[in-house]
Amino acid sequence: MRKQFVATLTELAVTDERVVLLTADLGFMVLEPFAQRHPDRFFNVGVAEANMISLAAGMASEGFIPFCYSIATFASMRGYEQFRNGAVLHELPVRIVGIGGGFAYGSAGFTHHALEDVALMRVQPGVGIVAPADDAQVDRALRDHYARPQPMYLRLAKETESHPELEGHFRWGHLETIGDGDIVIVALGSMTGVALEAHRRLLADGVHTVVAVAASIAPAPTEDLVRLLASKRACITIEDHRPIGGLGSLVAEAIADHGLGVRLIRRGVIDRIGETSGSEEFLRRRNGLDVEGLIAAVREVGLVPA
Amino acid sequence: MTENGNGARSLSSIRVRRSIIDQSKRAHVGHIGSALSITDILVALFAHVLDPAQDVFVLSKGHAALAHYCVMEQMGAISREKLDTYCADDTQLGVHPDHTLPGVRFSTGSLGHGLSLGAGVAFAKRMAARPGRVFVLVSDAELNEGSVWEAFMFAGHHKLDNLCVILDNNGQQALAPTTDVIDLSRIGASVTSLGWECDRVDGHDVDALVGILQAPGTGAPRFVIADTLAGKGVSFMERQVKWHYLPLDEEQYAQAMRELS
């Protein structure tokens, strides 16, 4: 996904001289295509994320569109106040590109697990939050929205992802839905693979679910959610993120604000601080964020009387 | 010396200081010592150095914004009526500056952001081959913030000679003298070691300030240590830490205005 990001951005920068790529010394074997094609618009600012985010606001105030690249934890938190008082306050087109949402850097340990980045970005007014499901969505979202005037946070996975069911669609402020049924699975972009596999296995057992991919987190896809959930029995949100402040909260707010009667189950990262580390697969499984965990959640909610 | 329009000719440190005392008294708001400390630096910059068409000024020590407002009012950028809304409800003129004001590129108030923002502007200007310099006014205690040093390293490495940082070196921070908190007596050597040119000047000598600030950097960003007194011009405020926060009572107001006549 990060390679797709770089490929698309490199192409966009050919025709738009405002596009600049900054990195806080990360992106080995990833950023080279941009750096080689646009050496005058690629800068490694050093291991200094706070400075990078403010520099970007300064550059944006002169008309540039700076993309600030780092691992999602550092990208979203080291320069958070700089983002708030810079790009957000001055409404400047700074893009924070957080690589490896959730447990993507699994064995690197807690310092590298981005479990609250969506929550942090959601509370800042006017910030667009994009959490694509696959490379095609990265490409679509960037092409259609890279030049929007407001600040943005992009939450990208490390590895290549492809979910042909989405047909590369990405719409600002909307959900992409697959299938139909009485139970809705709302998946943060990064959980799309898990959600679709659970959907397929359940279907084989005669359990019908809708998968709604939430790749556009802000603006929130509230209208789509309300329309989708109004007539459903239950909704399960799944995110590789804390259950507070992220997608689960977003859906809960939509349900509460619109007085919907749908039952909501929020699945997110429930690990306590200080637990052991491991692969992304292991850490997701431990938190019930794997296919089996999601299927179990659907079966459980299916027992709730309508 | 260049002159920046009609407003600039009428800009005088004593009038700006009187205006600071007036507004502080009326609004019953502190940060007087900081505003008096930077008054001569602002007068030098706004009357004689800054080209508003292409230069950018960043008041990184946003808590001294009252001095900037008083300069704006004397130069005609804002009206006296507007200045009189300082710290009132629904005002554009709060304690810290707002980017919707004329000549204010960035809202500030949280210390340590201005240098990175200014470096970003300077860097962008150079990338786009645009003219103009960027002046960032920082406080000494603000240099305690880590991100400032990220920006010092960045600007030095990239030889941003269109960037000039002015240090309001008044030796005081909120609770105590800087020598008791974080001693900055070797600050010039620290910044020079990161690839900056360093100058030192009497921060209350407008002519000397203008001479130093008008000269652009030669292949490196410039760091100007302006030695100042917090509370400059009002005897009972000078070098007194308490005037970082305290507002004025009637008697103090009268004495301050007598001394500034």
Account of the 3D structure:
The complex is a heterodimer of chains A (306) and B (261). Chain A has 306 residues and is of the alpha/beta class. Chain A is built from twelve helices and twelve strands. Chain A has helices at residues 2-15, 32-37, 49-60, 72-77, 80-88, 117-122, 135-145, 192-204, 222-229, 247-257, 280-286, 291-302, and strands at 19-23, 42-44, 65-71, 95-99, 128-130, 152-156, 176-178, 183-188, 209-214, 216-218, 234-238, 263-267. In chain A, strands 2-1-3-4-6-5-10 form a seven-stranded mixed sheet, with helices on both faces. Chain A has a five-stranded mixed sheet with strand order 7-9-8-11-12, sandwiched between helices. The model of chain A has no long low-confidence stretch (mean pLDDT 96). Chain B has 261 residues and is α/β, with parallel strands linked by helices. In chain B, 41% of the residues lie in helices and 11% in strands. In chain B, helix 7 links the parallel strand 2 (134-139) and strand 3. In chain B, helix 2 (13-27) runs antiparallel to helix 3, helix 3 (32-49) crosses helix 4 and helix 3 packs across helix 10 (206-214). Chain B is globular, with a radius of gyration of 17 Å. The two termini of chain B are 26 Å apart. The interface between A and B is medium-sized, with 26 and 28 residues.
Order of helices and strands of chain A: HEHEHEHHEHEHEEEHEEHEHEHH
Strand content of chain A: 15-25%
Approximate strand percentage of chain B: 5-15%
Name the shape of chain A in a single word.
Answer: globular
How many distinct helices of chain B? 11
Class from secondary-structure proportions of chain B: alpha/beta
Oligomer: heterodimer
The average pLDDT of chain B is 95
| Low-confidence region ranges of chain A | none
Shape of chain B: globular
- Uncertain regions of chain B: pLDDT < 50 for 5+ in a row? none
Helix content of chain B: 40-55%
Strand order of the largest sheet of chain B: 1-2-3-5-4
Measured by residues with Cβ under 8 Å of the partner chain's Cβ, the largest interface is: A-B, 26 and 28 residues
- Structural classification of chain A: alpha/beta
Number of helices of chain A: 12
